[in-house]
Amino acid sequence: MATTSFGFVTIVICFISLSPFPLLGAAASPDPGFSLDLIHRDSPLSPLYNPNHTDFDRLRNAFSRSISRVNVFKTKAVDINSFQNDLVPNGGEYFMKMSIGTPLVEVIVIADTGSDLTWVQCLPCDPCYRQKYPLFDPSRSSSYRHMLCGSRFCNALDVSEQACAMDTNICEYHYSYGDKSYTNGNLATEKFTIGSTSSRPVHLSPIVFGCGTGNGGTFDELGSGIVGLGGGALSLVSQLSSIIKGKFSYCLVPLSEQSNVTSKIKFGTDSVISGLHVVSTPLVSKHPDTYYYVTLEAVSVGNKRLPYTNGLLNGNVEEGNVIIDSGTTLTFLDSEFFTELERVLEETVKAERVSDPRGLFSVCFRSAGDIDLPVIAVHFTDADVKLQPLNTFVEADEDLLCFTMISSNQIGIFGNLAQMDFLVGYDLEKRTVSFKPTDCTKH
């Protein structure tokens, strides 16, 4: 049992400092690495920081974005081909600050492990959603190149997502997201740069991206588009795979520390996780290949182990029944399983069970005074990840302590609250994801 204080995390990514790797591209060393700072969306360091919001306001907003995001996933009863294109949370959980083109134009884009295609708003744009940064004008960039129909990356788009301009043979893309947001435009290549010219920039080889000339929906005006960090062929991670060897990792600092220190995301050599207490679980290949699927076998509350009943087939747990997603705040579990988990929690936590007056959380306790809370372990295949109370409970209101896992009839999602103070590493060559308990303030 452990006693702790509580926080929650919703993250904005801004690229602040870089490791001294001058170039990523054909002439780069075989396996360079680079690291970047992450700034919490609601941190005073964030451009989105609203001093009028309370911690409770920020938590409720993060919860609402989680619901919006998870609703994009379809139940397994739905034909897999009816999946919506990628995921976009309302306003985005993470942002990247980078530059594009020659000469450089600074843009801020949503960074999303649940998306593949990288795209930005481009001129001429009709319609465009409002953004604070200038729109990218490809006609003024000497490094911009259209992608032609029939090319490998054009064909990487689903048939429903691509079209061919009859007069120019330019590959066009058409994306509609689960929250009714959309982007349409031309597939192209362009130079991307991380960091300004005064901070030893990292230059990325020409990246295939979408130059969006028709965009709308729920995108935040701070953002100029999306950087896809998923597992599909069009994602930034996949395009840089030969350079970074398919490796990236991040370490999310607890909310209570965000004012003093930033989280980190690393690519390539810098991202390798090693040492004691590292556990790894296989990534499961499923359609769509954008998402990072793992197999959840059981959840333990203290010493009580509960088999995960989602997708039981002849007594065997279905492989790939959970998606690890840094863009979802909460963790979503199968509703039938969650009923049993809820019962065990109520028996274990020695505090008064109360209802959430706003009806958002299903398991809450009155938090007057310290409460001893159990360590909750999630048992992935070959990897037991022990979650501390800061990963599994939040103070959702005054004297109201709520469990950050909730029930869902859709596919399970392992959210970013559960990943705080863990070094989480993805190796797309070995097809594994690894966890290491880490003080992320010192990482």
Automatic annotation (TrEMBL):
GO terms for molecular function: aspartic-type endopeptidase activity. Keywords: Aspartyl protease, Glycoprotein, Hydrolase, Protease, Secreted, Signal. InterPro entries: Aspartic_peptidase_AS, Pepsin-like_plant, PEPTIDASE_A1, Peptidase_aspartic_dom_sf, Plant_Aspart_Prot_A1, TAXi_C, TAXi_N. The keyword Signal applies. GO terms for cellular component: extracellular region. Residues 94-436 form the Peptidase A1 domain. Pfam families: TAXi_C, TAXi_N. Residues 1-26 form the signal peptide. GO terms for biological process: proteolysis. The keyword Transferase does not apply. It comes from the Eukaryota. PANTHER family: ASPARTIC PROTEINASE CDR1-LIKE, OS07G0603500 PROTEIN-RELATED. Belongs to the peptidase A1 family. This is Aspartic proteinase CDR1.
